[in-house]
Amino acid sequence: MASSRHRAEPPNLDRFLQFIAGDDLGLVLRSHLALEVTLNAVIEADTQSGIRDVERVGFMAKVDEATRLGRLPGDARPSFVVANKIRNDFAHRLDARITEERAAEFLASFDPTQWDGFMFRAHQAAVAGTTRDRVGFCYATLFIIAASYGGLILEILASMPVQENEP
Question: Using CA atoms, how far apart are residues 153 and 114, in angstroms rounded to an integer?
Answer without folding.
Answer: 20
